[in-house]
C-alpha cells in the first residue's frame, strides 16, 4: 500500500554551543564567567535544492503567482521515482472480473482528481492491472478497460484528458504476489503513475 | 521507424540427396510408446489418424551413428545423433521404436557394409536406421543415414547430408523429417521451433516503478534444445507468434511505454513496427499466407479486432461491439478468424468470416480464451477453459462442436498453440511450480517439459 505520509522537509539544524564547564570541586574561588560563543538559531533547511519551476506553469492566464509551484511545497521537490514510491495518488480498486467503478473507487478518484488539479503540470499514466486468476490474454484487455474507466471518470471531474494516458499490464505485475483473496483484491486496480512533472 | 538489432545468424545445414527407394512395411505386434501413461480417456476419433493401429507399426531401431573420423568431437556427435534421431522418430508415434537399452549386446557396425543384421533380427527390428558421421573440414560434417530392411539387409532409403558443425542435431532432425515424409507421407516437426516469453534474464524493467521484471522473447528447437534469446530489452515482450515462413516473429512490446506490435526478422536482425506506435496494439496473429496480421487495439474506444497488411497499409476494422474482442487466430484456409469475446458476459470463443460477417459463438463454458486453429487435416480449435481455480486445454471440432479435454488439472494449463502438422500442441503449465512450456500430442499424451529456467509463458510453434 502506498503510504499517505509526506515527509517533512525540515531538518534540524546544528546548534553549536561552545562552553567550558566550571569545576566546583573543593575550590573556593568565585565562579568565573568564561566567554561563550553566541548560540545560533536553528535554521530550517531545504532537503535538496528545489528543481527549477516546471516548464509549463499552471494557470498562465492568471497574472498572480500560483503558490502550488513554489518550492516550499515538498511534493514538487521530489524526483519521479520518489513521488511514485510514496504516491499521493491512490489507486482505484475493482471487483473480481469487473471494470465498473465502485463507490469506494469513485471516492479515491475524487481525491486524486483534486490532487491532479493542484499539481496541474503532472502527466499521468493510468495503469490497468488484474489478479492472476484470469488468462494472460484476456487480462490485457480487462486491465485496459479498468484503466480507461478510471481515466474517463477523472476526465469527467475536470482533469484535462491530454494529461492522462492509459496502459494495461494485465496480470504481469501484481502488487502482491501472494495467492490469497486479499492479494487478489490488492492487484485488481487502476494505478496512477506520474510520468512527468 | 525500424530499430536495428544485431542477432546471430543461424547456420542451416544443406542436405545433399544421393539415392532413395521404398520400404515394404513389416507387421509386428507393437507395444505402447515410451511416453507416460495416458491421463485422459482415449477418444475414438483420435486413433484413426494420429496412431497407426497397434498391430501394424513397423519396429525401428536406431543405434549410435558410426564415427568415421577419430576426433573426440565426432565421436561425441555420433553418440548424440543416434539418441536424437531415435527421439525424433518416436515423436510422431508412427513406428514402434525398439528401446535403446536393449542394443547393449549388439556390436556396433564398423561401416554401412558391415551391419550385423542377424542380431537386429533377433531383437525383433523390422527397420534399422543406421547413420554415420565424418568430419570433412575443420567445421564441416558429412552425415549419411540409411534405412535398412532388416530381413533382406537392403538399404531401402539413403541420404547424405553436408553441413557445419555448429548444430549437429539438425542432421538427425532432417533425417527424421525425411523418413516420416518418405515412409508415412507425414510432415514431421523435428526441424520446427518454439517461441515463448521468459523472465529468465532476471532484468528489471526500465521505468519509474521498481521491482518489475522484464520479459524477453526466446526460441528453441521443438524438443527444447538450443534455447536462444531473441530480444534484449528492459521491457515487457509478450505473445510471440511465428510468421508462416518462420523467418519473422511478431510480438507485443512495451518498449515505448505502451503495447505495440513488433515484427522481428530474426535472421536479418531487423525489426518492423507496422502500426508505428500510432495507437496501442497487442496480440497479433499472422494470416496463413503471411501477408496480413489480425490484432487487438482500442483505437475506437474498446478492445476490437483489426486486420492490416504486414507493411501497415490497409488497416481494416473487423469487429464492432462494445465488448472485449481479442486474441485472434486464422483458419488454415485464411477465410475465417476465431477470437475471444465477452459480448455474452464471460469470455467465449467465436468465429467470424474475414470480411466481418457471420459471427458464430463456438463455446458456452464458464470462461474460454486463446483459441488456436489447427492446421489441416484437422478442423479443430484448441483453447484454454476454466475448469476450477485454473485452466485446462480443450479442443472443439468446428463441424460437430464436440469438445475434448486434454489436460485435467495438473496445474493451470494455458495458451495452447498447434504444431504445423496439427498433431501436437505447445502450451504453458504451472504443474511443476513456476510457469513452464510443455508440448503434448493432440490426444493429450506424451507431455514433455521444454523449459526449466525462470517463468515462461505464451508460446507458439513455428510453421
Describe the SSE topology:
The complex is a heterodimer of chains A (197) and B (463).
Chain A: H1 80-85, E1 92-93, H2 103-118, E2 123-129, H3 136-156, E3 164-168, H4 181-187, E4 189-196
Chain B: E1 14-20, H1 44-50, E2 59-61, E3 66-67, H2 72-91, E4 96-97, H3 117-123, E5 127-137, E6 140-149, E7 154-164, H4 169-184, E8 193-198, E9 216-221, E10 228-229, E11 237-242, E12 248-253, E13 260-265, E14 270-272, E15 281-286, E16 292-297, E17 304-309, E18 316-317, E19 325-330, E20 336-341, E21 348-353, E22 360-361, E23 368-373, E24 380-386, E25 391-397, E26 403-405, E27 413-418, E28 424-429, E29 436-441, E30 448-449, E31 456-461
Parallel strand pairs in B: 2-4, 2-5, 3-5
Antiparallel strand pairs in B: 1-7, 5-6, 6-7, 8-9, 8-31, 9-10, 11-12, 12-13, 13-14, 15-16, 16-17, 17-18, 19-20, 20-21, 21-22, 23-24, 24-25, 25-26, 27-28, 28-29, 29-30
Helix pairs in contact in B: 2-4
Q: Share of helix among residues of chain A? A: 25-40%
Q: CATH topology of the domain at 67-196 in chain A, which one? A: 60s Ribosomal Protein L30, Chain: A
> Taking all residues together, what is the mean pLDDT of chain A?
76
Q: Give the count of helical stretches of chain A.
A: 4
